[in-house]
Specification:
The chain has two domains: 2-173 and 356-374, 3-Layer(aba) Sandwich (Rossmann fold), CATH 3.40.50; 185-352, Glycogen Phosphorylase B (Rossmann fold). 42% of the residues lie in helices and 16% in strands. The chain has helices spanning 13-27, 67-82, 95-106, 120-123, 132-141, 150-160, 185-191, 211-223, 239-248, 265-268, 285-292, 305-308, 323-335, 337-352, 356-370; strands spanning 2-6, 31-36, 50-53, 86-90, 112-117, 144-147, 167-169, 197-202, 228-233, 255-258, 273-276, 297-300, 315-318. α2 crosses α3, α8 packs across α13 and α11 (285-292) packs across α14. The protein binds ligand GMT. The site of ligand GMT has 18 residues, from α1. Ligand GMT binds at residues 8, 12-15, 17, 118-120, 148, 172, 208, 280-285.
Length: 378
């Protein structure tokens, strides 16, 4: 099959899923054209994926670059030159609309469009009265729509008044070979020089991630003289605020800030716990990455997280915003070594349910069903 994909290049779940999907599809012999305004952060040169960069030009008349139009123009050129049979838009805005425009401009009417809703395209933009009609239109006019969890599917259906059959669920997936526990003792010693336990958080530090809740809960553990270190991985708008909080709460000596890591598996392999205190999370890809590395996850009970983290079996869920409950969950797993060991093994087992080998065929099947049989074969 020949597939074009649109995605954001910045560190964030939707871009990661798009790149991993492109990689897996290319590995299976499909021709993949990835269109984005920058090289996606998890894509490296030398992969068997065609990358087409969208130029974001400045022009004195326009206050901002014409992101959607530039994307549509670049994609239209890709459609004309390479004849992809299908466009897969990752994140509704503005990619579904850009895909529809590109299809029209290029005159390639038989090209099908799939939109994958990833999270805030529904939970934030879909709730905005001004943008809701555009989101609804984008999904109604897509030839197929997928959601990354049942929770997100239900939310989209309820918010936008779409028929349930319009949105199918295809869970996010993980490369269980690349993501497995493989401890680099040097790295572990760097993060925990005196053998402290390691609590980890990885995100793009947006307000929705509620990183300050983790700092508050962690400070409670430090007060109890628990021998723990906190490792925060990533960059984002709230990072400065979190750094100041760490200082004010007097826990700086126990907190390490690492920047964005393209390959988080070695870091995760050093962790004892991963914490995700998000207000909203349609799936929580990082939870799955941690589980594949046999790290129990403590997550807020929200969105699709209960579909990933099996509460009481692979990890623990706590109510959003409840720092005491979060501290109690961390304490429980740090103190009970046997429970921790069981959860770690069960986490890896559960992650295998989301292995690429199980999920990618669902995309292949969907693509195959949609592609116009009159299209010139590959
Ligand atoms: O960061 C992004 O690229 C998108 C982001 C969002 O804001 O919607 O992430 C979502 O997509 C990921 C991949 O499907 C999910 O694992 C995340 O849970 C989800 N984030 C939220 O729902 C907040």
């Amino acid at each position: 099959m020949r597939i074009a994909m649109l995605c954001f290049p910045t560190p964030g779940g939707s871009g990661v899923v798009a790149v991993e999907l492109a990689r897996e599809m290319a590995r299976r012999g499909h021709e993949i054209h990835l269109v984005s305004y920058e090289m996606p952060f998890r894509l490296s040169s030398g992969e068997k994926i065609f990358y087409h960069e969208v130029p974001l030009r400045e022009f004195p008349l326009f206050p901002y670059p014409l992101f959607t139009l530039e994307t549509a123009a670049r994609l239209a050129a890709v459609l004309q030159e390479f004849s992809p049979q299908l466009i897969h838009a990752h994140y509704t805005l503005p990619y579904s609309i850009a895909a529809m425009l590109a299809r029209q401009i290029s005159g390639q009417d038989r090209v099908k469009i799939i939109t994958t809703v990833h999270g805030t395209d529904i939970s934030t933009w879909g709730c905005d009265p001004a943008m809701q009609p555009l989101i609804r239109y984008s999904l109604e006019k897509s030839d197929a729509v997928t959601a990354v969890s049942h929770s997100l599917q239900r939310e989209a259906v309820a918010l936008l008044g779409l028929g349930e059959e319009k949105i199918s669920v295809i869970y996010n997936f993980i490369d269980t070979e690349r993501y497995r526990r493989n401890v680099d003792t040097g790295l572990q010693r760097e993060l925990a020089p005196r053998g402290e336990r390691i609590i980890m958080h990885i995100s793009n530090f947006r307000p929705v991630k509620r990183v300050p809740d983790l700092i508050r809960a962690f400070a409670l553990l430090v007060k109890e003289k628990k021998d723990v270190n906190l490792v925060l991985v990533g960059e984002g708008v709230e990072k400065q605020k979190v750094m100041e909080m760490v200082k004010q709460m007097g826990v700086s000596a126990r907190v390490r800030f690492l920047g964005t890591h393209v390959n988080p598996a070695p870091l995760l392999s050093c962790a004892d716990l991963l914490v995700l205190p998000s207000a909203k999370e349609s799936f929580g890809l990082v939870a799955l990455e941690a589980m594949a590395c046999a790290v129990p996850v403590i997550a807020a009970n929200t969105g699709g997280l209960p579909e990933v983290v099996a509460d009481g079996q692979t990890g623990l869920l706590f109510p959003v915003n409840d720092c005491n409950a979060l501290a109690a969950a961390m304490r429980r797993l740090l103190d009970d070594h046997d429970l921790h060991r069981r959860f770690a093994a069960a986490s890896r087992q559960r992650a295998e349910q989301f292995a690429a080998g199980r999920i990618i065929p669902l995309y292949e099947e969907l693509y195959g069903r949609l592609i116009d049989s009159n299209f010139p074969p590959c």
